[in-house]
Amino acid sequence: MSRFVPLIIVAALVALFLGMMLSDRNPNEIDSVLVGRAAPEFSLVSLDDSAPALTHADLKTGAPVLVNFFASWCVPCRAEHENLMRLAGDHRVQVIGIAYKNEKDQAIGFLNELGNPFSKTGLDLDGRVGIDWGVSGVPETFLIDGDGVVRYRHWGPIVGDSLEQQLLPELEALR
Amino acid sequence: MSRMMFAALLSLFVNAAVLAVAVDEKPLDDPALEAQARELMKEIRCLQCQNQSIEDSNADIARDLRALIRERIALGDSPENVKAYLVDRYGDWVLLKPPVKTSTYFLWGSPFLVVLIIAFLLARRKQELAVASPLSDQEKAQLSELLGRKQ
Amino acid sequence: MAGEIGHFALLLALMFALVGATLPHVGAARGNAAYMALADRAILAQFSMALVAFGALTYAFVTSDFSVVNVATNSHTLKPLLYKISGTWGNHEGSLLFWVLNLTLFGALVSWRGRKLPLRFRSRVLAVQSTLILGFLLFIIFTSNPFLRLDPAPLEGNGLNPLLQDPGLAFHPPMLYLGYVGLSVAFSFAVAALIEGEVTPLWARWVRPWALLAWVFLTGGIALGSWWAYYELGWGGWWFWDPVENASFMPWLAAAALLHSAIVVEKRDALKSWTILLAIVAFSLSLLGTFLVRSGVITSVHAFANDPARGVFILGFLALVVGGSLTLYAWRAPKLAPSGLFGVVSRESALVVNNIFLSTFAAVVLVGTLYPLFVEAFGAGQISVGPPFFEYAAAVLMSPLIVALGLGPLLAWKRGNVSRSVQIAFPALVVGFVAALVLLWQTSGDYVMTAFGLGLAAWLISSVILEIGHRLRLGKANNPMSSLRKITRAQWGMSMAHMGLGIILLGITISEAFTTEELTVMAPGDTVEVAGYDFTFEGVAPIVGPNYTAVRGFFTVYDGETILTSLMPEDRVYSNPVMTTTEAAIYPLFSGDLYAVVGEAASSGRWSVRLYFKPMISGLWLGAFMMMVGGILSLSDRRLRIGLPTGKKQQTSGASA
Question: Which residue from A29, A65, C316, C503 lies 20 to 30 Å from C445 (Cα-Cα)?
Fold first, then answer.
């Protein structure tokens, strides 16, 4: 029997590789461990001087909320910005923006230039809140349910069909 | 080794700066704590640059994590606690040394398991190969006697 | 024009491969000598066409013909000539063409050196080789054609990754490919033997030089890459257990096992089906490496631009080649009954032990490399398997191997005597223990693993010396000079390679444990002491290279009052494409390397620097070099010369690895 062992191992490996290649996965993506857990506690000053500090309490609104980590220096963030505007406008979802490792006036300049989809903003200058959220790079977008629990994390820019195919179905499921 | 051999295309999220030397301006004052922090950094995987530890990398997030580790070690946190802190945020993925748990039993056991399997496969062949045990003294005596007779 | 010639040559090569992969089998089945003899001509034709195609691509690179897409994406007019040439194989399409060139080259070599092989067997071997070539050619033509045109042609190319613009790296991939492809010969020999249903000691004799040659190339390729990482990446590391590194290490381990097990086949006509399996596995692991780099299944910084079509194609090819040969193996293995016998204590058994540990290590490296995929596939989350796991596996598996390695060559063939061998090796045992204990005592017990590694290295090195002494019958009545002449080159080769391993182990153990490093920021005039050497930072100066600008740092290193050397590391910024690289400055001393790297500017005129003293790190490259020399010595042994099948049995008795 042992003469079949190598063949069986190779068949298993080929099946594994094939499965991995056919599945829609990005080998660079690190899954978020936050999904299913309450959003971490934090408090950040707003980009808007007149607004109060942004805290985790702002996420428990009774309705789904998106939290988007962005930065003015981040090129993919520009690419997804239009979709964030659509989410806030057409899809009437509250989007909260956290400027990740960004100078305040640069982040404000970014929003002035491209438009502001965010109902509330926070400034994470040293990136510590980002670490608490398990952010590995910008942009990343988290979908929070009405109770403040993270339900979905979108890794990388929301571009192409990922808005229609991935984010919106997750959002609708919560509504 | 040939780590960047075919880096014809570094992935989108890997910035060129990862290859610059990672040196922080502020090591910890206490050399013992600094050494402890450095050891820990070698076990944490960089999130933006695949297969590097944050100790090696100059990526932004690696720099931030180094600062964070130094901070917590300076506050007297144990390396185990700091690891748990990071796993809590990034999952087991950040540990270059996979934790021993149900899903990794096979991994950690593999050197012993495979050696047994291969030894078994090869030893089984030996049934046919096993040679008669060396001659006993008595047999040797008989042999030399026989040989002697021939001469 | 060159593009079209190259493309046409590829198509012709495909035709010849098709002929070479089929008709010789027909000939062998029907006993038609003319058909069988076609194999030789077909392989030569394939080689000529591959040479033309590769030449055409090289020509396009050298002349910067940007109407060829591949050249435009991977080259640049400002690149130095060496890197224009090395750019040919520094990209996905070109490297595949290089694979084909080597596959045909080795095929042609088998045809040339193997004239004394029986026609029937040789034609089978070459037909299998042609099948491999056919697969690669189809892959190139359908998914990765290097001769595609770009219209209009751009005025300038995108340039080669600056990291590849390095003399060490210009020759690292070709060496590695020669090794991978060299294993294809062992594979073809194995499959041909399975088709014929017969493995003889003569077969092992034919196949072993090829395995040895491939192993020498792999050793060189791996060592070159490791050396490059050491001086180029700037943090003093030389091995990272990255999937792509593992992909080159696994075939190396399998090839090492193969060239040891082939000895048992040759000597004792035993271990036959295992050796066949190893020959198949060794080349399969080479193919697996190619697959991993190009499919995007695994994250590695080396990954080529990924294209799902390519991944699926290689996977299909891999499944066909490996699956097919293993099916053949499962079918034929029972026919390969051993005829020779050997005792439980014998040189043959020692070689079996060697095979158990080397092949286990290869398997465990495979498990570690793919484990994150398994875990993910079973939905158990994401994990990383990094250096700590592989270091653990190496410690568990290589320690017993090295203990056995010291003793094995002292055992007699067929039936050995343990107590006699231990008696000879006893001084080495003492040296090993003393070395370990002294180190433990000196470091007050802090470095247990280091002491263990040092003890093993000392045991291995001294046992090799004792073994040579034993061969020379030192201390016996006869004249050592006459015994010296009796030692064959193959025996010197074995001792050299084993000694090389000991020296590598010594280098790893000592440099890992006792590296001194300073990561700091320095202003001009500052001095930092590293391991007793004073590094004075003299400042930096900007410099301009052909396609980069750089900041060069100046360090003067003092040993006490005397100036030892000056070190000038660079931090380069390449222009096409834009990328920062570090060039470490290294000054090797007998005791270790002085190593300096300059990084970016810090506040108030200071610069970030990394300074190291790496004791005995040169052992790695010295040891690897000794392994290669050992392999070449063994290859040059008349009795083992490639394709020299007629060896008198009595000549070989008493020979060894």
Answer: C503
Site from C99, C356, C382, C574 to mutate, B interface, most B CB atoms within 10 angstroms: C356
- The residue among B72, B82, B90 with the most chain A CBs within 10 A of its CB, best to mutate, is B90
Each residue of C65-94: b (16+ CB within 10 Å) or e?
A: bbbbbbbbbbbbebbeeebbebbbbbbbbb
Round to whole Å and give the CA distance between C185 and C170: 25
Residue C485 sits at the vertex; the CA angle it makes with C482 and C486, to the nearest 5 degrees, is 90
pLDDT of residue C564 exceeding 70, the answer is yes
Rounded average pLDDT over C29-55: 94
User: What is the ipTM, given to two decimal places?
Assistant: 0.89
**Interchain contact B88–A (C-beta under 8 A):** yes
Over residues C403-419, mean pLDDT: 86
DSSP category for residue A163: I
pLDDT at residue C456 tops 90: yes
What is the tens place of the pLDDT at every residue in B11-64? 333 333 334 455 665 778 888 898 899 899 999 998 877 678 888 777 888 888
Q: Would the CB atoms of A28 and B64 count as touching at under 8 Å?
A: no
Q: Furthest-apart CA pair in chain C: how many Å? A: 84
C31: closest CA of chain B, how far (Å): 34
The C-alpha angle A25, C382, B88, rounded to 5 degrees, equals 125
Structure tokens given for C127:
């037909």
Cβ pair A172, A64 in contact under 8 A: no
Q: Is the pLDDT of residue C244 over 50?
A: yes
Q: Are A51 and A120 in contact (CB under 8 A)?
A: yes
Beta bridge partners of C518: C611
Rounded-to-integer distance, Cα C130 and Cα C134, Å:
6
How far is C126 from C122, CA to CA, in rounded Å? 6
pTM tops 0.95, yes or no: no
Interface of C with B in 57-96 (CB under 8 A): 74, 90-92, 95
What is the rounded distance in angstroms from the CA atom of residue C516 to the CA atom of residue C614?
Answer: 7
What is the predicted pLDDT for the residue at C568?
94
Instruction: Tell me the chain A residues in contact with residue B61 when contact means C-beta distances shorter than 8 Å.
Output: 127, 136-137
C302 inside 8 A of chain B by CB: yes
Element (H, E) at C60: helix C33-62
- Residue count of chain C, please give it: 657
Looking at residue C655, its pLDDT comes to: 38
Question: C10: distance to nearest CA of chain B, Å?
Answer: 24
* Distance to chain B for A155, nearest Cα, Å: 11
